[in-house]
Amino acid sequence: MPNQIYYQLCGCCGPLRPRYKRLVDNIFPEDPKDGLVKSDMEKLTFYAVSAPEKLDRIGAYLAERLSRDVFVKFANIEEDTPSYHRRYDFFVSQFSAMCHSTHEDPETCSRIRVAGIKGLQGVVRKTVNDELQAIIWEPQHMDKLIPSMLFNMQDNEDSERGREEDFLDKRENPASLAESCFRELLGRAAYGNMNNAVHPVLVHLDNHRLWDPNDFAVSCFRIIMYSIQAQHSHHVIQQVLSHLDTHSKNTPRVRAGIVQVLLETVAIAAKGSIGPTVLEVFNTLLKHLRMSVDFELGDGSRRNSASSLSSTRTKESEERIVQNAIIQTIGFFGGNLPDYQRAEVMMFIMGKVPVYGTPCHTLDTVKIGHQGTKRIQAMLLSSLIMVTSGFKCKTMCAGLPVAFLEPLCSISLMEDSELRQLVLEILHNIIDRHDNRAKLRGIRIIPNVAALKIKREKISKQDVVFMKKHGQQLYRHIYLGCKEEDNVEKNFELLFTALALITIELANEEVMIDLIRLSIALQDMVLANEENMPMFIRCGIMALVAAYLNFLSQMIANPPFCQHVSKVIEMRNLDAPYLLPEHVFREKCVLPDALDRDDVGLYFQTADLAEALSVPGYNVERLAIPYIPQVTEEDRLPRRKSFVDTISLQVDILSNSLPDQSQLAEEITFETLKKAIDTTGLEEQERERRRQVMEKFQKAPFEEIAAHCESKANMLHDRLAQIFELTIRPPPSPSGTVTVTSGHAQYQSVPVYEMKFPDLCVY
């Protein structure tokens, strides 16, 4: 105890310090530039030889002074002239080894690691800004520096999971010091050094199997993204994308871990500069999405035994984790892009969605089958929902260009209710520019639309032009989408929201008249029931029409119109509640066997609506013209399924163009001759048909007539092109001829020696 007090007092007064400490202190100059004092070093050496019992104390104190000063002060020296011969290979190796110390004493181990990290920090500070020492960024050094820091950061993560550690000063905590040094190193990385700095991180995560779970991996890349300069972010994204490619055949959880790290990386990069990697990110992610579906469904032939069935289910659930992670990444990345880039990404993703009638260049639909193709379509559409969320296009022509609208509407008519729901949600995201969709959630009879505080602006001229060009296309797909037999409540809810959003965002007086005609046409279709629809679908359509006309009447704010709609709804409440959304979509709603067409009080009457709208601004004469969806080439094709037909169109054309052999071989009997000769009633039918055509061209709006004629012209042009392709062949050429099969251009060259030349050309 007296000795301890003595040494404490001596520490306060230099002359009273032990001699070995004074000798060690003397070898360090006041100015580090001067280097160690040679004469004092000789004195220290002589003292150590003379008093070998003090050697341990001398070494311990010397180590303390070295760890306390030399990599701090030496690193901060600003040299007047650069050093051409100085190298740091030895220091990097030794300090890295110290960072991996596994000394049995935890305190000693921590001190050694801290000393090693400080040493590496000194080397970094000394070299990163020295152009002559660019060698420090080379892989042989980065492969030692980076893992040494990550090892200590990882060790801290592991200890925090198991137990609570006492608080240590950050300067003496290996994990905190390593993180600080890691951030400093990345912050000093130049454009050409980013790859060498990031690659060792990926290798370390691979070697230590830190992708599953990936908490530490996510933490590392957050540090990386916040430490580097913003303009270098795309380098990191490219590195992670490449690493995902190298692990394309790894376990689903490893791939999901890498994708989640990419999500964190992209989330930070999207706020700054992402460079030219936008489409590359989406292309890589979509490729891995298809691969994941392929892995999940490609082994269907081996699902026979019970053991293989259970393992397959486990694999499917793990692949779903990968797929969900990819979709989240696509959606988050797309959602943070500016609108002009987001529109480009929307087009890019839509080009990857398999659509009936278009060749699929990137998907082997035969291999993954109907179910796999449906999954791809659903996931890509889900990605589009996330990308379009919050999208605010200035004009609808920019949000729904023809190249995007046509394939989207084609998918909306597939025989799959889930796909149709996804398409409608995409349309909602694009059309809803004032965030009104949440107020319209749920199909119902809204008692007071004004209480919803709908936000709207006057329709722009550009949107008026859009509805003149593409309004009929939207109406057609809503009309046809209503009568799909697999519709459920959500389909009708989304159809109601679509009609309401079109009214809010795109409807002037002319469009409102068209929407009323569409509603009445849906009602007439249900009453006629020419397609023998299920009663639930018929009642659902009636409920949809009631909910929409109730909403529209209050938006128009025309009292007679509102009175007629309210009267019909009251009658239905009393006599036919199954025709209202609040009743028909209940679980135990009792449906009728038939609908009474003669009870006119239950249905909306065109004459009453036209009389109510006999005010300036509304062309009520158009209400008398029944809405008929325009005919397109899709109506001549078989019913669309989610599976993509990639077989050559030439086969379909040839098979359709040839007459049926059974028709050629039809037996000619007396009855067939009688039918051919009997013309009773044909002239009257022809006159009625001509009258309807004349009336349609006299009263129908110009847009409908133009759309009808355009569709017929397109059909004629397509047929002629197909005939010419089959009949007209260009002469053979050694440079090759082009043939189009399933949308693919194929070049077929003919060797010169097989060509037949005219006699005058041969000598």
TrEMBL record:
Any one cellular component term from GO for this entry? Answer: plasma membrane
* GO BP terms, alphabetized: protein localization to plasma membrane
Whose protein is this, by species?
Cyprinus carpio
- InterPro entries registered for this protein in UniProt: ARM-type_fold, EFR3_Homologs
Q: Entry's SUPFAM superfamilies?
A: ARM repeat
State the name under which the record lists this protein.
EFR3 homolog A (S. cerevisiae)
